[in-house]
């Protein structure tokens, strides 16, 4: 895969704003572990290898278990996730697949039961932001860090 464009070089001010929003959301009242699960789940849906690499590593550093990371794609079938996490993951899927789901009332009711109004906004912004990051990385074919290492190794051989 060849990188199409380096978004950071092409539009540094726009990316700076996204990074600032990322920082503000990271400091929100939503627990860091849940933020990482949301980012991983959206990135799974969007097929973003770069973001999956980053957020699974961040989740592990924060103490997330391998089992919960591996089962995240099938969270509905597992008892390893709390009601709060399940509500956030359902909302993540609903908003990431918005054109298909229309953000169902049942998913919103689950979020409303587990999150304060401010947290609902923060969670929704987090979901929108990771979807934007995914679109940048997938759209511009950001090269996954391990792909860079593999390419360098092949070039040196």
Short description:
With 157 residues, the chain is mainly α. 74% of the residues lie in helices and 0% in strands.
Query: What is the CA-CA span between the terminal residues?
Result: 19 Å
Number of strands: 0
pLDDT under 50 segments (min length 5)? none
| Count of DSSP-assigned helices | 10
What is the N-to-C order of secondary-structure elements (H for helix, E for strand)? Answer: HHHHHHHHHH
Mean pLDDT: 93
Overall description:
The chain is mainly alpha-helical and 157 residues long. It has 10 helices and no strands. Helix 3 runs antiparallel to helix 4, helix 3 (32-46) runs parallel beside helix 6 (83-96) and helix 6 (83-96) packs antiparallel against helix 8 (105-114). The protein is globular, with a radius of gyration of 16 Å. The chain starts with 6 loop residues before the first helix and ends with a helix. The mean pLDDT is 93.
Task: Looking at this protein, list some descriptive labels.
157 residues, mainly alpha, globular
What is the secondary structure topology, with strand pairs?
Elements: H1 7-10, H2 12-26, H3 32-46, H4 49-61, H5 66-71, H6 83-96, H7 98-101, H8 105-114, H9 117-139, H10 145-156
Helix pairs in contact: 2-9, 3-4, 3-6, 3-9, 6-8, 6-9
